[in-house]
Design goal:
Chain A: Keywords: Membrane, Transmembrane, Transmembrane helix. Chain A: It comes from Herbiconiux daphne. The complex is a heterodimer of chains A (136) and B (122). Chain A has 136 residues and is mostly helical. Chain A has one domain. Chain A contains 5 helices and no strands. In chain A, helix 2 runs antiparallel to helix 3. Chain A is elongated, with a radius of gyration of 16 Å. Chain B is mostly helical and 122 residues long. Chain B has one domain. Chain B is elongated, with a radius of gyration of 15 Å. The model of chain B has no long low-confidence stretch (mean pLDDT 93). The chains are: A mainly alpha (136), B mainly alpha (122). At the A-B interface, helix 2 of A face helix 3 and helix 4 of B.
């Protein structure tokens, strides 16, 4: 990996970028949770499928945030699982929302590849995976 | 919500966010300027909270869901506090970038609050 030579003299830098990543994850977790709580309280019956998905996504973002912060090999694996789940989720739901818009008449976090969230849900898992690979 | 105040707030949050991200990437640790910019963003959020609470008494009712509005507003109020504490505890350039990320997130949330108050439900 070409980065290896860069990582050695500045090991704290990778960790530093990782911290920015964790904060963005935390913000997204907060946004997804807030939205999901509101949807379930106020209008769950309008689109139960999309809103259930929102709630699952919110929980997964919270777990991913914790897994990125917590040390140890178990959390490392948890981070991989949750982040992979997010990537699969945003790609699947994003594609479904394009072809079956009725199912997602009310948007979830992942609808249209996370467009309502500036595509951050699409970009973040990829950055997360790159970071995980680098810190192992 | 008052529209011109909200616009000012979004502009300030975006400017503060860009300032912090740029200075952070340039290697600056959190200083009075970046912490001050974040504090200003927080101050405007507190003013916004007071405005939102007082508005209905003056006939300025939200068109959209008040519950959704307040979930956004309370979350937004907490963000600069969290980022600010982080910056006080860890004095690194990345803390400055984090301040910027927080301010930009606040800008997006205030914009969304504006949509809920003035557009949603019409």
């Amino acid at each position: 990996m070409a980065h290896d030579t860069l990582v050695k003299p500045a090991p704290t830098r990778a960790r530093g970028i990782g911290r920015v990543l964790i904060v963005v994850y935390a913000i997204l977790a907060l946004a997804a949770t807030g939205r999901s709580v509101y949807e379930i309280i106020a209008k769950f019956d309008q689109a139960p499928f999309a809103y259930t998905l929102s709630a699952i996504a919110a929980v997964v973002y919270i777990v991913a945030t914790v897994a990125l912060i917590a040390p140890g090999p178990v959390w490392y694996r948890v981070a991989w699982v949750t982040i992979s789940f997010e990537l699969v989720g945003v790609l699947t739901v994003g594609t479904l929302s394009l072809f079956l818009p009725d199912l997602f008449a009310k948007a979830s976090v992942w609808s249209w590849y996370g467009m309502g969230y500036l595509f951050i849900p699409l970009v973040l898992p990829v950055l997360g995976m790159l970071w995980l690979r680098r810190t192992r | 919500m008052i529209e011109w105040f909200t616009i000012v707030q979004v502009v300030v949050a975006v400017a503060a966010g860009l300032l912090c991200v740029v200075l952070g990437l340039a290697g600056r640790v959190p200083n009075d300027l970046t912490m001050g910019a974040t504090a200003l963003v927080e101050l405007l959020l507190i003013v916004q909270l007071v405005v939102a609470i007082a508005s209905p008494a003056f006939g300025n009712e939200a068109r959209g869901s008040l519950l959704e509005f307040y979930i956004y507003l309370i979350s937004a109020v907490l963000l600069p506090i969290g980022g600010g504490f982080w910056a006080l505890i860890e004095r690194s350039r990345w803390s400055t970038v984090i301040l910027g990320a927080v301010c930009l997130a606040v800008a997006v949330m205030v914009y969304r609050m504006n949509v809920i108050w003035f557009v949603q439900g019409t």
